[in-house]
Every structure is written in structure tokens, then in C-alpha cells.
Specification:
Blueprint (H helix, E strand, L loop, with lengths): L1 H6 L14 H8 L3 H41 L1 H21 L4 H18 L12 H25 L3 H21 L3 H27 L2
Helix pairs in contact: 3-7, 3-8, 4-7, 5-6
Length: 210
């Protein structure tokens, strides 16, 4: 979410598998065939559950996306958002100056996303093609992937944590003002995200082996 908020800043809108022979895998892992089968079954079940949870999260989020966008545009929220961005940028400049270019790129792509997907009237010769839309989305996803480790480190900084907590509180309060049902929807998203986290922990344990 944080990376997309950076990418959406201009409009204030918006977080190698090596295949081995089965026999070698069983020897290396120390599992008996039955244990390996049970582990594989559980992994398959967990991955299916994870897919279902992600779909549930996405569906729930889509229901309040318009309210979230409107709340991010509210003057009070945008001011707190700018304070959060400034705190993250100060942290990056101090600890990871190489990440500043990624922050700037995220803001630039945010403007491109708004141009190719927003309700802006374009001249006939400026019509946006599907290929261009996909290219912008792909660039955004790549930038998010590169930026994510730096943002995760930034979120360990007490000043950044405080600024983000203030942004969350301000955003949720404004969303609740716009839609009284928003807090319950956000809670459902939070609960689903925690379920995904627990599933990911178990998947990682199974993949590590005994």
C-alpha cells in the first residue's frame, strides 16, 4: 500500500525454484515418502487458501476504493500524507540515498498512471493504447518491487512509524466521515490480511522442511 501511495502522490491517490528428482528431494529433506506427501498436500491446500484470501481482500478493498481516493484528496489527510512522505524521504536521504531515485520515479509514474487511466480528455492524436496502459502498470509494479525493501526498512524508524500512524488515523477518520460503514470494511481487510500473514508463515515453515 505504501509504495502505491508514493506512486499516486501527484493526485494523492492511489505495500528460482530448482526442480530436483523426487528421490533426492526426500533424502535431502529427511522426510519419509508419506511425510513428504502430507507436506505437499498441506502446501497445496495453503496455497489455495491464500489465493482465496487474496481474492477476498481484493473484493473487499474494491468496495471502498472510491471512498479511500476521496479521503486521500481531503485537505487534512493530504497534509498529513505530505508529512509522512517528507519523513520517509528524510530517512532515505540519511540511510539509503540510492533510494531517492526510486521515490522520484514512483512519483513520475504516478503522474503517468493518472494520465492513462484517469478521466482526462485527450486529444485524438493522444489516445492511450492498451499497450501503453500495460507498460505504465508494468513499470509501476517494477518500481514498487524495487522500492519495497527500502520502505520496509524505513517503517522500522520511530519517526516514520509515528508519521504513518498519524496518516492511518487521519485517513480512516475521513473515510468514516464519508461512509460510516468504512471502518467495518477496513477491519475486515485487516483481519483478512492477518490470515494471509499466518498462512504465509506456515507456507514458509513447510518450504524450509523439518
Amino acid at each position: 500500500m505504501i509504495a502505491r501511495m508514493f506512486a499516486a502522490r501527484p493526485s494523492r491517490r492511489s505495500f528460482g525454484t530448482l526442480l530436483l528428482p523426487i528421490g533426492a528431494l526426500l533424502v535431502a529433506s529427511g522426510c519419509t515418502p508419506s511425510e513428504a506427501s502430507l507436506r505437499a498436500d498441506e502446501l497445496a491446500s495453503l496455497r489455495q487458501e491464500r489465493s482465496q484470501l487474496i481474492e477476498r481482500f481484493s473484493n473487499t478493498q474494491s468496495g471502498i476504493r472510491r471512498i479511500q481516493a476521496a479521503a486521500l484528496d481531503a485537505p487534512g489527510v493530504s497534509m498529513v500524507q505530505d508529512s509522512f512522505y517528507a519523513e520517509v524521504r528524510r530517512f532515505m536521504q540519511r540511510e539509503y540515498p540510492e533510494a531517492i531515485e526510486l521515490l522520484d520515479r514512483a512519483e513520475r509514474i504516478g503522474a503517468d498512471v493518472e494520465r492513462v487511466s484517469g478521466p482526462v480528455e485527450l486529444e485524438p492524436d493522444e489516445a492511450v493504447t492498451r499497450d501503453e496502459q500495460q507498460a505504465v502498470v508494468g513499470e509501476l509494479q517494477e518500481t514498487e518491487r524495487d522500492l519495497r525493501p527500502y520502505l520496509e526498512r524505513a517503517m522500522t524508524d520511530p519517526l516514520v512509524q509515528t508519521a504513518f500512524a498519524e496518516l492511518q488515523d487521519s485517513l480512516i477518520a475521513e473515510m468514516a466521515r464519508l461512509d460510516p460503514n468504512a471502518p467495518r470494511t477496513i477491519q475486515r481487510m485487516t483481519d483478512t490480511a492477518e490470515q494471509i500473514r499466518q498462512v504465509d508463515i506456515r507456507i514458509a515453515e513447510l518450504q524450509r522442511g523439518p
